[in-house]
Amino acid sequence: MTTPLKELLQVLQEEFTLAAPEIDSALMQWLSIESSGPQQADKAAAGYARLAQVARMIQLEGLAIVLELLRDCAPVFATLEGEDLHEALGWLLRWHGPVAGYVELPAENEAVRDLNRYMAEGPLGLTFEQQDELQKLLRKPPTVPAEMEAHAPTTAPQPLDDHEVSLEVPDDVDPTLLDAFLDDAPAQLHALTAGVRALSHGHAELSALRQAARAAHTLKGSARVVGIRGIGRLAQRLAVLLDHAVDRRGEVPVAMARDLDQGAACLDQMLHALRGHDAAPDEALASLERLGDWLRAVDQGGVERLALDTLPSALGAPDPATAARPATPAAASSSAAAHSQPPNPALATLRIGVDRLDRLVHQAAQSLVSHARLEEHLRVIEDRLEQLEASNGQLRHRLHQLDAVLDTHAAAGGNAAGGITPGGVEPLAELRAELRALSRFATEMGADEQEHGRAAREEMQTALQTLRQQGQTLVGQHRELMAARLVPARPLVARLRRAVVQTAAATGKQAHLDVTGEQVLVDADVLERLAEPLLQLLRNAVDHGIEAPAERAARGKPRAGTLLLRFTREQQLLRVECRDDGRGLDLEAIRRRALDMGLIDAEASLAPDALARLILLPGFSTTAEVTDLSGRGAGLDLVADQLRAMKGRLEIDSQPGRGTNFTLQVPASTGLQQALIVQVEQQSYALPSDSVVLALPAGQGAVAMTAAGPVFRHAGREWPYRQLAQWLGVAVGEAEDGSKPVVLARGAHGEVALEVDRLDGTRELLLQDIGRLLRRVQGIAGGAFRPDGRVLFLLDIEALERAAESPVRREAAAQLRQRLKVPRRHVLVVDDAISVRKTIAQLLRGAGFEVSTARDGFDALDVLVRRKADIVLTDLEMPNLDGLELTRRLRESRLWKGLPVMMITSRATHRHLRNAQEAGVDVFLTKPYADDELLAEVRRLLPAQAAR
């Protein structure tokens, strides 16, 4: 192959590497939001057209025809809907693999066969004659056009524009993935710059170069995942040149090492610009073009000539000693500093990890607890001082009485004695004198003691005032930290949409998700913990609620089902409604199943909402088959348990034939809860303030007996009257006569009057984790520490009422956890890039799998020792132990020999594929991959693994 042809093929391969992720992203966005079809179709068509133009430039007529057919199909598919659209998009999404194989090895038999088969399987309806003609064109090797042949040696590369170094972040990017990329990038960049700097100084070790090349490949892949074109393009060229440096064992020209160093510095400034700490580098485009010159020189074997041409003209004839001297990027750096604009202060932010913020919030909460305990100790000291002052007052009173008695006795004794002899002393007089002296001394000591007590009280008041100020400061600090954790609900929406699309595709149904209230602010921890319940509810709604398209059409419904997710905030409560327009719950089937399982008696009468809540019991299901996607037996139980852990509650409203509405209510932020403290049978409990309507002291109402039971009457209204002690299962004290305080609270069926023993006022509680076991106790929503160190439980009034009224047999319900439990398949994802690990993990969790992650092969082996996995997804190039060596070790192990392994890598050459197959890899996917393709391969391998 001639040198110009190599150069043109490289242009095609580079263009494919850049255009393919954009096309795939447009197609996936189209699949997720069908209404965006025309817009995404135009984006995909533009990408196909650009690739077709480059293919025709090197006479790859067959590839150009394929790409133009794909270009023309996209706008036609935008006019389809329903099953026809899903089938057409499913075929279009598979374009990447066959075209990538042909771009790498044009006209090769295997590549031609794969691409021709892909076109034949599509909805184009190609005839056999057209397929044969297309196959002949695909077998024609690439050639240089005649008009370019004469100028081949001086063929100039395609000019680049600012779009190639753009740092624009796509609007639809998942913010969590962008954060993961920005968190992971500094470590990768450190490895990259360390290797490049050592190379420019002439003492790079081969291991450092390999690590730098691997870091460049990781940055390239991660940048493409989040859609930042400029970083992906620059990192790609750095990665290829570093691979060349590794092949040459570090023996590269000084000029190349200098340009690599400048490219790494430019990449560093790009990342700082993304964070808002710097301006975008002015020399990014020039650096990208310069690295492109080196790539062409490597391909054409002209590296040495380009290195000599790089020397300044003032040097005259090239001097080997001068050419070997390392170049420094100081000039470029100073130039960049001179032309760079100061960063925008509005964009500058301080990034802090969620784990560190969690620790700060926890420390602030503990400071408040310690403050409350100290305040309690000071209150006790103040009580003791009051007792001391009271005792001092009694002492002084007794001393005053003693003085009066002594005076009385002195006067009486003097009158009785008459006179005293000159030389004698009256014994009683001496005794009275001594007693009087002691009395005066004790009186003076009592006065001193009183003064000390007064001074101590003043100090105590000062300390209490300072402590109260500190308490206000701590509360403000805690609230500020809690406010720092508030984020909009929008980052979660992308995952939820993807889960609906994947579940619909897996079940052969049509469904789309509408979301409102995405900007509602929620605690980041609450949002993260809410993700799994919402994913399970949406999967469950598509799998069990939404009917098949034909069934919906027969019922007069649109063929595509609608799911509505609405986020609203009511003071400190987050309310999420998850509604579908499907078939609704079959309450009669639920009742029959409950009878079969022995959960209820045949004569038991359950209200519709009580019947509906049976689906939340562990293992309860009305279907014979429970899938990995969803299932009443293993899904809604987890939803209910997770909501209990969040001190939330779940309401179910279902209309047969019209759909089901799940309403979730959870605290919008964690940690703080305003509560009313009550006492029942000498034990204190907390009632959430949002559940309390009114607290009435004893004697403020009357209790009357009616046919429906006791009622409480107050201010012309009446409420059902219940004893909180009875709901709590403790011994009931006096009869229900209204002689005790009453709390009007919101229960499961409306407002209810609860009898308590005493009202102890309101308090802001700092809630603590009460553990999984206590969360399963009916009616306990959380716990907090009292100032004296004892635990105060926060009650869930609705749960207490339901538990008290439920006719469900507890012993039968306890056995359900062992029934119909379908364990979720466990997937191990191994990749050294955090953003890639997180992307794949989110995709798999959204499809119903349990996922563990590892950063390299050694970490993966540790995970496998601790827990068995059903399949391993691994990257090829990783530090410490790469994907190939990991696979070999798995295949050599008796325990993991049959474990399916899928390799996902950006290295797409046949050499890498052959090495993977020899190591024992079952499936080899190239980045960027299509989500549905990855999930299809995972599901295909899992049954094979189960059969081994």
From TrEMBL:
SUPFAM superfamilies: ATPase domain of HSP90 chaperone/DNA topoisomerase II/histidine kinase, CheW-like, CheY-like, Histidine-containing phosphotransfer domain, HPT domain. Residues 317-344 are annotated as: Disordered. The modification 4-aspartylphosphate is found at D875. Pfam families: CheW (PF01584), HATPase_c (PF02518), Hpt (PF01627), Response_reg (PF00072). The keyword Transferase applies. Keywords: Coiled coil, Kinase, Phosphoprotein, Transferase, Two-component regulatory system. Residues 672-806 form the CheW-like domain. One of its GO terms (cellular component) is cytoplasm. InterPro entries: Bact_Chemotaxis_CheA, CheA-like_dim, CheW-like_dom_sf, CheW-lke_dom, CheY-like_superfamily, HATPase_C_sf, HATPase_dom, His_kinase_dom. The keyword Transferase applies. One of its GO terms (biological process) is chemotaxis. Residues 371-405 form a coiled coil. It comes from the Bacteria. Residues 317-341 have a biased composition (Low complexity). Residues 170-274 form the HPt domain. CDD domains: HPT. Involved in the transmission of sensory signals from the chemoreceptors to the flagellar motors. CheA is autophosphorylated; it can transfer its phosphate group to either CheB or CheY. This is Chemotaxis protein CheA. It comes from Caldimonas brevitalea.
